[in-house]
Design goal:
- Two copies of one chain form a homodimer.
- In chain A, a hairpin with a 7-residue loop joins strand 1 and strand 2.
- Chain A has two domains: 82 residues, Winged helix-like DNA-binding domain superfamily/Winged helix DNA-binding domain (Arc Repressor Mutant, subunit A), CATH 1.10.10; 89 residues.
- The first copy, chain A, has 184 residues and is mainly α.
- The C terminus of chain A is likely disordered.
- At the A-B interface, helix 4, helix 5, helix 6 and helix 8 of A face helix 4, helix 5, helix 6 and helix 8 of B.
- Chain A binds a DNA duplex (28 and 28 nucleotides) through helix 3.
- Chains A, B: One of its GO terms (biological process) is regulation of DNA-templated transcription.
- Chains A, B: This is Putative transcriptional regulator.
Chain lengths: 184, 184
DNA sequence: TCGATCATGTAATTGGTTACATGATTGC
DNA sequence: GCAATCATGTAACCAATTACATGATCGA
């Protein structure tokens, strides 16, 4: 989903300034995307030029004038089409996967350490996401709450998947271990 | 993992040309990353300048001269450090998640259709990945095979997770359904 | 008085992709 | 005779980030 569709999506509900938009998805969208002013303002300008949104300027004293953007009918149609358009296939491009690929170059201890640290980080994210449950429940609509649950499940799936890798690492084809097995 | 570390990782085993490198990860790395010449050649040049690799030129007749790159001791150290460096936290930035966030703007039928099509695409990827199992088993080392299994599990986790969303969509708070429930 | 909030925007940089340019050799 | 493989590279472009620039007002 490109920046344009995301901005349109938020503007479907309310007219907003670029500043408001940034805040809006810093709150509810933070988990999957973080957009900066450097991409928002140019995008808004382009969308206005293309007739997807209109601008009303509110003159202000101290601060720069507020530019409130409102979605047009064209914009609404465009957004709804983009929502129904085929999803690009998602690649499981995990940062961990690339490391694992080269794990043969690390010592068994280093492998375990890297993997375990990563698992720790994931569990921390999980805990953090769980802790915001009340806020999400209070503000999200039904589908946004499904998003939240989907995200939580993704994280626990990832944790489980990683744990299985760690288990496999433990079963190191290790001379010492084999010896011990015979001994006991 | 940046392009530099990936290239170094492949050069750890063999000296190679840019062309070889592209082939190497078109085969084994395809699942998580696709790099183009437009990024490989400049990267190699930069790495040579930084002393991570050295170049031997093999004069050729027809084709452009082969430039075989070999990793240096500095390069090896750099690579091993990057392998042990902390992993950047991975965001579950799913293309589907962003759609779901705005599902309130679609009709129940459109929602189900979008979600189900996506599930279909994922199952297809799964089948395709399963079908290359023999080739992977033949060429991958132990850790690369763990990668493969990790990837497969990620896909089935994703499929299961999506199915749960679809189930939740079925339980549409729908007047018709409620009426039917009372009737039966 | 100091930091946060409101509010806009640009410039430099990053990290890539795609398309273009060249051209011999080998196998079908 | 035509496509694929070998082999290099550049130029244009894209989508985004980060840092910079400006400046008032309000609450602790």
């Amino acid at each position: 989903m490109d920046i344009q569709s995301i901005l349109l999506g938020f503007l479907m509900r309310n007219s907003m300034t670029g500043y408001d938009l940034k805040k809006a998805f810093s709150i509810s969208f933070a988990f999957f995307s973080g957009l900066s002013y450097g991409s928002i303002y140019p995008a808004l300008r382009k969308m206005e030029k293309n007739g997807l949104i209109t601008k009303q300027v509110e003159i202000q004293d101290g601060a720069p004038n507020r530019k409130v953007y409102t979605i047009t009918e064209t914009g609404r149609t465009e957004f709804l089409n983009s929502l129904k358009s085929p999803l690009s296939p998602e690649q499981p491009k995990s940062t961990f996967l690339m490391r694992l690929f080269f794990f043969g170059h690390l010592s068994p201890q280093d492998r375990k350490s890297v993997a375990q640290k990563h698992l720790g980080a994931i569990k921390q994210m999980q805990a953090q996401l769980q802790s915001v449950q009340p806020q999400v429940a209070a503000h999200a609509d039904r589908f946004q709450y499904l998003c939240y649950e989907f995200g939580l499940r993704s994280l626990s799936d990832l944790a489980r998947n990683l744990s299985q890798v760690i288990d496999a690492l433990e079963e190191e084809p290790n001379v010492q271990n084999q010896f011990e097995k015979i001994q006991t």
